[in-house]
Structure formats: structure tokens, C-alpha cells
Amino acid sequence: MNNRGLSRRRQRHEARKTQGPGFHAESGAAHLSSSLSAKKAKKTSKKREPSLAELKQRMLNAFENDDYDDDGSLLAADVDDGAGGGPDVDDRGFVKIDLGKLGFNPMGGNPDDDEEIDEDEAFGESDEDTYGDILNTIAERTKNFSRLNASDRKRRHVADDDEDDEEDDSDEDPSMAGYYSGDDEDEYAGTDSLADMLMAGVGASDDDYPGIQTDSDSEEELSFAGEDASDSDAEDAEDAAFLAEFTARHRQAEGSAARDAEVSRVQAVKLVQSIDGAQPEQTEAYAESEMNLQPSAGLSLRDLISSASRLDTTASGMKGQLKSLKKIRDAELAPVHSVEAERLTREAAYNMAKDSVTEWQPFVARLNSMEFVSFPLMDTSVSNQRLNSINELASTHESETALEKDIQVLLETAGLQNEASIAALEEDDDQMKALTAEEMAERRAQLARMRHLLLSNELKQARQAKIKSKAFRRVKKRERERKELSIDEMAAVDPQAARERLERMEMQRLEERMTQRHRGGGKWSREMAKRGVRPNELLRGAMDEQSRISEELRTKRTLSLDAGLGGGSYSDEDDGALSDGLDVVRPGHGAGLRAVIAGATLDPGAAIGQSSEASASRSLAAALSGRGSAVAAGGASLDDHGDEFLLDMDVTGGGNGGGAEPQANPFAIALDQKDLVERAFEGDDVFEADFQKEKDHDMELNLPDLPPADVPGWGSWGGEGARPSQAAQRREAKRQRTIEKIKSAARAGRSDANLAHVIINDRVNKKQSKLHADILPHGFSTRSQYDNLISRPVGAAFNTQTAAERATRPRVMTKAGHIIEAPRSAKMTLPGRTISGKE
Amino acid sequence: MKIRMLSRDAAQTTRPRSNDLPRLPRNLDPELHPFSQAREYTRALNATKLERVFAKPFVAALDGHRDGVYCMARHPNHLSAMISGSGDGELRVWNLINQKTVWSHTAHKGFVRGVCVANDGRSILSCGDDKAIRMWNFDYDNKNWATAVTEEAESVWLDDEGFTSIDYHRSDQLFATCNSSVQIWNYERSNPLFNLSWGADSLHCVRFNPTETHVLASAGSDRMIMLYDIRTKSPLTKLTLAMKTNAIAWNPMQAFNFTAANEDHNCYTFDMRNMSSALNILKDHVSAVMDIDYSPTGKEIVTGSYDCSIRLFRANEGHSRDIYHTRRMQRIFCVRFSQDNKYVVTGSDDTNLRLWKARAAEKLGPVSSRERAALNYADTLRGRFKHMPEVRRIARHRHIPKAIHTAARTKREMKEAIQRKEDNMRENSRSGSIPREAERKKNIVSQSR
């Protein structure tokens, strides 16, 4: 429905209204109530938050008489339930208007409501005599109004075709439409001057009357308008513009209302005071204000009229006041300024345009993030593809319209969204059909049991996870350890895991040996020792426990033969045992570990004493490869034989691990520890000296100018056998001191002065600087990132054909002679991958 | 006697076809190529040098006009067709293939201010100082273009004021003109469909958005850029810059972005949704930028300036990647990218149109696949090592006219002096009392709604 057309029509009705005066007191009263309620509803519709659509509908209804039936029924519902507002008829037959309870009522009120009020009851004759003049005026206006409404309705039913034309006309001038649409409403409100007057007191200055629920509805409306403007994609342009205009109009009206609030309120107060002269003064049962209208009791017409009996002013005086009030009201109704109206239109249009260009955002983002783009762009969206089958169409189909989406949701909830799910569903169905009723019940029960078990286990775990008790944890640990397989058992089941565990244990062993944690190295033991506690039973038990743990941890373990490596478990004390490979050769009791000879360091030319070369190498190979026979050193002896080490080895029979008893080595080690170390690190000092020399040289390169030496013959005798004079010698000594001073200063000034093993070159090499980017280029966050990029070659000489092609392919490709058109649709899909690798 | 010989598999060493390269087995193990980076660096350096050696952007000068060329339009369906209008009212249609005029006519009395081609390519519209818009039929199916354009204007529209710019809608039969307001016309009607105005006294550029086709932008002499929407028939917003905007170009691939060529030697790219700050500022010209055009890929921008030079920018970078100039070329008033992204056409004061390559060193004509691979490799290497000082120095090296060089230096010195002064002031006043101003917001005076 086009409200602009209607508002224009309304204007004509206004004109007609002034021509046809008439008087019907009863309908006048009724209309007074309804128009009051309309006004009230506008101000007090806080309770029932209207939706945007509803609000708009109301606004339209407010100007539209055609919709009376719809709205009337809505109102009737409001009125009919006892709690709802609406005019009550009190015992004296007056219409009581409860301002606090009124629902929304469009202009002119509801004809059905009007009929409910008996005219005789509503107004006695005596009343009419008394208040004839005032009410005549009121009734006359409202009567005209209702008659117009009726005629309007009739006319509209007859000539619906006219409407379209009028709408078209009104389309032309949006600013005018804004004017009328805003104007109309207030014009109607203005017809009931008394209501107006009351509202001027009540509504306009609602801040002063906190009890009355006249929260700033206008603000709500404004915010709605704001929402509407922001998500106006659903609305069309006209609606947005209209709403913007309306809200602006309303805002202005509110502003002027606030301005006029003082004036109108003073007048209203005067009136009420003059009317209600005999009313006793009240104490502050609620917030104080100039015009103490009791919000809970509500202002009834009776209050006004009963007090009017003591009215000493003439009706004409009141008329004058009412007129002046109307003038003030009219002054508010100035149309929104065209500048403002245009601004609002522009804003709404700008928001719309923004929304529509934003639809291109995904396309632009995709285009910018594409790894390779080839222009002209190929649209591979569904509409541009040739499809080979219905299935292909179905697989790429995306539901777009609301109906399609609804259907999709329904299908998904039913599990019928695609072929696979349908097939799965059917299969399930078949399986279920194959079962008997008992089987099904059993299956269900089983499932329930499983679920219950799972749940209880989950709960148990959750509960236990929260327990902080150390004792509990200890018990749990023990339990876990009890359940654990021994290393040999584990090796039989899972050799890999066993090996890992073995490594872990080896680490623990090392740690224990290093820290001595359970042999008095721990904090607890140290405390005990410090305090000198005499061990009682308990303590002794604890200490035993400690030593047991220590023992256990220090026990060296290996995997048993059948598990893989060979060799049984050896304790630390197993003398002369070869643990794994040829890592350690233990010379025997008492001698302790003297030297570590890795297999690789064995001199190939070394003489192997007492056994053949072949057997020794065989044993070495066997030990190194670690397969088959266990190798035990029958007594590895180290002997100083010239410069050679002698390695004495015996090969025992293969197969049974630990078959041979290790024997004590009778030979002593001839080499001293010191000698060995010297021999091992021979030449290291040479290197250090060289390094220092190099460092000095580097330093000397950077020395400043040194004082020159005396030129021979100057200042002293020259020639064969001539000795420099003493003065020259002094000068030379001084020069040397200066040089030394300079050098030491230079040495101290180096950035590697305190780093014995480092030479830091502080000089800038100009030739090299050409080969480095001087600043980290944009787009890289670290230097290594950039280095990585340029150190990775892209050429075909360093890469496979395809890799090189891919690495050198230009990101944007265009073809000569092909016109590149701008995209026509934001929904265009671009094939290919993005830089981040997404399809 | 048995002779021992080396034997090898023929399949490993023989090429499958006679025109194939001999196979060169390579071991790709990086350990075996310790100098790969050094080698590629040298190749990059050489490629950069060669790129400079081969940089010959100028293709041809198209002479024929007897006055400066002030407006230009490309044909939407023909790469080789170019239409230009000059200061003496002459309209010319060019064939860029043989660089000849195929049709010319004195279309207007006084300047031809704007020219455009209808979106179906079948008519040319021109407007000028003589307060007229004229439409010329152009039968582009006709192979002989000399007879393709009608001798007499098909339609003429007259107004009270001279028109300053004209542009055709991408898809509808609408075109926009401007003088003191923007008029939207349908070529079947004698009066504009509607006028769009918002307080500007004189507009000199109007451009439809090629993607979001209902939006159009205009620039006015009161230093503003205005946006309009023809759906709501309403202006949208007005942006006032510090100086006048001479021309506007929409990014054909990014519906919401446009770039304004400004009198202050710079171009400003804006997102029409948020114009409180420029997205990018294109600097380098030393005089007013007179015209601007986006490449059809939306990745590059060409600008023509009053300093008699053309500059090519990457759309997202702040400085030009190349500058074109010739001794005889005077002030540039119009520039256009060709629709295949390969050429640039400019029109200048010296009555000539000039045809340039969009990439100065690009080889014209067919390129074999091996050549293509080699060029791609060289391009990639240049890109990779572009931050190396030597490579950068050579790649940036240009011979430019002394006037531009001097002006650029003067500008730089002035800018530095201003900056220094500002820094000194900042240093000697209470901290925060002289706030730093974002470069991209500096030139925006206001945005009205």
C-alpha cells in the first residue's frame, strides 16, 4: 500500500471535513476516548515492543481507514480481555479512560468499541447542558472525522482503480510524501484538542512524570529506523527512504514538542487548576511535579468534567485556550526541511549502494589470493558449465531460495540429503528388517549396557582425575607397575616398545648415577643427615626403600637374546662384560676404567696379540653387527707395545649368551692417564697458537697509524757496524711502548676481546655488501625467511621440469589479442588454487 | 682379440624428435649445486640489464588531428579501434593495426569534451562545448571501417550548457553526461531521464562503474568527487579533497575501488564504502595528473600528466614502475589501456595519439614455448632478487627529461624541508601537541552525506 498516495487523499478529506459540520455527542465522546487512546498508545507502547514490520504497519494503519477491520479486531481483542485497556464505563455512566492500560489504537478508534458504549449512559442530558459548548466543539470535530472515515471507506471500496493513479502521482515527489505522511498523523491527533492538551501535559514532558509509562518511544522508533537503514537489503528503496523520512519527521516533532513542552504544560496546568480548584492538595505519594497526575489511578474524563461543574470561566475562554493549544500543535507540524530530507535519502541510498558493492568482496578476495590468474577470466560457475547428467547438476546444486533451503533442511534432518545417505539409510532399514523382535530387543539392551558402561567409566575417570592425594597417586602407580610387563616379556611382544623402554631405563640409570638421588643425594636424605636423626623403624624402612629404588634404578639391563640384540641381563658389577657392541672394554678388577676405545678408533694396522687376525676381525664384526653370538672379552688387555695398543680378545662359542666366565686381566696398563690424554689431544695447542696469531693479525689490519721508526742515519751515525745513539735507542723504546699501548687499546676495543675462541670481523666488506639486501624486504618478517626464499633455486638446472615451470610461471597471465572484460556477476567462480593452497 | 668398449643405452641419449633438444641428464641433488644461489643472482642481474636494454616502449605516433587530443575512447569489441576527439571539434576513428585514421568528421564546434562507445559497440557518442551530444552509427561488422561510420550524426541532443564528459552504461542503453549536473540519458529519448545534482557548479568527469553498473562517480571543479546511484536516482556521498580531481577511473575487477587523478600531482585510490582514508596514494608525477585508466586486469594503472609524461603504476604500490616520455610529446590529456592489457594509448597537446607497450621490454609477436619459459625464468629471477642493491639500481634506472628530474628533486627537497621543520616543531613542543597526520588522510578535506 502506498502511504504517500493515501496521505494525499487524506489531505483532500481534511479539506472536505471543514465543509460539512455536524454534531453527534455520543460518537464524539467515544471518539474522544479512542483518539486519546491512539495518542496514548503512541506514547506508551513500552510494554509491547513492536517489531519493525509491525511498527510500519501501524504507521500505515494510522493513515489508512481501509484497514480498520483488521486493526479493529486486534484492538477488540485487546479490549475484551479484562486486563487489557479500553474505555470502562463506571457507575455514573462516564467513560473512564485509563491512560496506563490503553493499548494501541489507530486514529479515529474502533467503530465496534464505539458501539459498546451506550450513548445515554455515556452522557446524561444534564451533563450535556453543562458542558455543551466544550463538548460540542470536540464532538463536532470528531464527528466530522468519523463521517469522513465512513465516506472514505465507501469511496475506496468503489474506486480502487483511482488508487493506482494517485500512487503513481505521489511517487514523483518523495519530499512531499514525507511532508504529508508526517503531517497527517499529527493533523488527526490535533483534531481532538482536549486529548491534545492532555498529552501536551502528559506526553511531551514525560520525564517529569516517572510514574506514567511514557518512555521515549520515539527513540525506539529511531533505533528501528536505524536498523532498517543498515539492513535494508530486505527492504526496497522506497520503504527505507520512507522510514528515514518518518523518523526524521518524528524526531523533529519530538524536538519541537520538547520546546513547546513548557508552554503547553503551563497552559494545561492553568486549565487543570482552574478546573480542579476544590481539589485538596496531596502529599507526595509519588514524584513531585507541577501537574500531579496520578499514574496508577489514571486520569478519567469524569475527573475533568466533574470539576468543570465548578468552572467559573466561560466555555469560550476554554475554546480560546484550546485554539491556542492547537496553534502550538500546528507549529510543530512544519514539514521536514528539504535539505534534511535529501540528506536522509542520500544516506539511505549510500547504505544500499555500499551493500550492493560489498557483494563483490568475496570475488575480489578470491581474485587477489589466487596463485595464478589467467585473463580473460573464465566463469566456471554452474550456470556456465555444460553438465553431463542430472547427478552432476544435483551434486553442484546449492539451494538459493527460501523454499529450496527449507526443503534442504528437511531432507538433512531426515538423512536424505544425498545418494550415499539414502543408500545407508536403506541398508540400515534392511538390517533392521532381518532381525526378529527378540533380537532387536536384545540388541537394543546390549547397546544400552554399553552406553551405560561407557558413561560410568567416563564419570569414574573424571572423578579420579580430580583427586589430588599423593597417597592415592602412589597406590595407582604401584598398581600400574604391577600390571606392567617385565622388559623381557615386553620384548617378546613388542620389541620396538621394549627397546624404547630400555632406553628410558638407561636414561634413568644415568640420571640416578649422576645425581645419587636415592643414595643420600636427595633433599630428604640430606635433611635427615643434617638433622642427625636416629633411625627408628619407620625411618629405617623408608631408607631401605630408598636404597632399593636406587639399586633398581642403577641396575643395568639389556634385552635377552631371543628378543633381538643378544646378551642377557648384566648387572653393573659383571666384570669384563661387553654390554652392547664394542663400546666399552673393561680391563678387569681393580684397574677400573682407563680408556675408552670405540670400534672405529682401532688402528687397522694394530697387532692383535695371541689370536689370529681373522678371528679378531670376526669377533669385531660379530660384535659390531650385534647379531647372533654373544661376544665376551676373555680378557681385553691393553699393552704398550711400541706405539701400538694391543687388544687381546677371545671369541667364545656362539649361541649361548654369557657362556664364558669373564676373567681378570693379568696385564697392567702401561700408559699413564696423563700420557694418554696428551697423546689423544696432540697438536691442540698448535691450533690454539695459530688461532691467536690469526686474531692478532686481524687486529693489526685494523690498527690506526703507528709512529714511524727512525730513518737510519738520521740523528745518529749510520753505516756498517754503527750502533744507534742512546737518544735513538730511547726514541725507539718510546716508540715501541707507544705501539704496544696502541695495540693493547685496539685489542681491548675489539668486540671479541673477551672471547678466546672467537674472531669477530667488524669490518664492512664493500664487495660483499653488494650481494646482500640492505633492508629486509616488505612482506618478510625474518631474515631467514628471505634467505630461504632466495637460496632455493628455481631454474630448470636445479629442479625438475614441472617444478621449474611451476616456480617460474607468472602469477597474472594475459593473452595478446584477447579482450579482458570486467566481470558481470559477483557470483562468478574462479578455478584454481589460492596462494595458501586452498582450492 | 676382444675390444672393450663403452656402451650406453640409446634411449637415454637420443632425442625423441629431431627438433627436440639433446637430452641433458642432470643430477638435481642440491649438494651438487653449492653455487646455485650465486648463479641465479648473476642470471637475475643479467636479466635486469637485458630488460633495460630491450625497454623500447614506444610503438607509434598517430598523427592526423589538427588540434590537441582531449578525449579518447576504446571500442568495447574491437581491440584495434580507438576513437579520439580534439580541440577543434574533430572526431577520429583509428585503426591501431595500421595506425591510420579510418574515419574523421568535424563533430562539434569547439572542443570535443567527451567521447564514448555504446556498450553494443554500434554507435559512438560525443559531446562538446557546443552544447550538443551527437550519436554516430558505427557498423563494426563492416570489415571496411572507412564506411563503417555514418557521415551524419544519427541523433543529436542539445542542452543549455556545454557538456564536459560522457560515459556509457555497461549493460543498459543509458549514458551519462555532465556539466553543472549529471544527466542520465536513454538514447531513445530526447530528454534526460533524470538529473543528478548536489550543489556543484561545474563537473568535468563522469564515469560509470563497470562492474557495479548502477553506481557512477563524477568530479567537480569545487574539488569534490561525488558518487551517485541510478537505482535510487540519488547522489550518495561527496568527498572533498584538498585539490581538484581531474579524472576518475574505476577498478574493473574491484567493484568498490576507484582512483582519482588529482591536481596535486598524485592519484588517490578510494574504497567507495569508506572514504575517510585513501587506500593508496600514487606518487611520482611532478605536475597535475590529467587522466587515469586502469588496466583491464585491475592490477595496473596508467596516468597521463601535465608534466608531459606517462607513468605506469601497480595498483597497490605507491610509486610508478615505469615512466614513458618522448621529446615531442606535450601535455597528456587522455590515456587508455588497451583491452588486452598489452598497450597504452595516449592523447596529448601535440595533436598526436601515441601507442605504447604496457611493458616496455616485452617482445611483440609470437613467442616460442622455450622462449616463453626463458622469459618467465628471467622475470621470476628479477622478481626474486629485486631487493639486491645492484639489481634494484639497474631496474630503477631511467633517463628522464631534465625538467622532470629537476622538478622531482625540488619536490623532494621541499618535502624533506617541511618534514624536518615539522619534526623540529614536534621535538620542541609538548609531546602530543602536534599530532602526526596520516599521509592517506592528509588530503581529504571532508566527506558530506
From TrEMBL, chain A:
Superkingdom, according to UniProt?
Eukaryota
User: Which parts of this chain are annotated as the region Disordered?
Assistant: 1-91, 149-237
Q: Where is the composition biased (Acidic residues)?
A: 160-174, 216-237
**What's an example Gene Ontology biological process for this entry?**
rRNA processing
The entry's cellular-component GO terms read: small-subunit processome
Compositionally skewed regions (Basic residues) per UniProt: 1-15
Major localisation: nucleus
Localisation per UniProt entry: Nucleus, Nucleolus
Return the Pfam families for the record.
Utp14
Q: Which keywords does this chain's UniProt record carry?
A: Nucleus, Phosphoprotein
List all Low complexity biased stretches.
Answer: 25-38
Specify residue ranges for compositional bias: Basic and acidic residues.
47-57
**Keyword Phosphoprotein on this protein?**
yes
**Name of the molecule in the record:** U3 small nucleolar RNA-associated protein 14
Species assigned in the record: Fonticula alba
UniProtKB/TrEMBL annotation, chain B:
Q: Where is the composition biased (Basic and acidic residues)?
A: 419-429
Query: Tell me, which GO biological process terms does this entry list?
Result: maturation of SSU-rRNA from tricistronic rRNA transcript (SSU-rRNA, 5.8S rRNA, LSU-rRNA); protein ubiquitination
| Location (main, coarse) | nucleus
Q: Can you give the residue ranges of the Sof1-like protein domain?
A: 358-444
Q: Which CDD domains match?
A: WD40
**Can you quote a single GO CC term?**
small-subunit processome
In this chain the WD repeats are located at 62-104, 105-139, 282-323, 325-366
Subcellular locations according to the entry: Nucleus, Nucleolus
- Locate the region Disordered: 1-32, 419-449
Q: Which InterPro entries match?
A: Sof1 (IPR007287), WD40/YVTN_repeat-like_dom_sf (IPR015943), WD40_PAC1 (IPR020472), WD40_repeat_CS (IPR019775), WD40_repeat_dom_sf (IPR036322), WD40_rpt (IPR001680), WD_repeat_DCAF13/WDSOF1 (IPR051733)
Note one Pfam family from the annotation.
WD40
- What are the record keywords, sorted? Nucleus, Repeat, Ribonucleoprotein, WD repeat
Tell me the superkingdom of the source.
Eukaryota
Similarity comment: family membership:
Belongs to the WD repeat DCAF13/WDSOF1 family.
Q: What is this protein called?
A: DDB1- and CUL4-associated factor 13
What organism, scientifically named, is this protein from? Fonticula alba
What does the organism's lineage look like at the top? Eukaryota, Rotosphaerida, Fonticulaceae, Fonticula
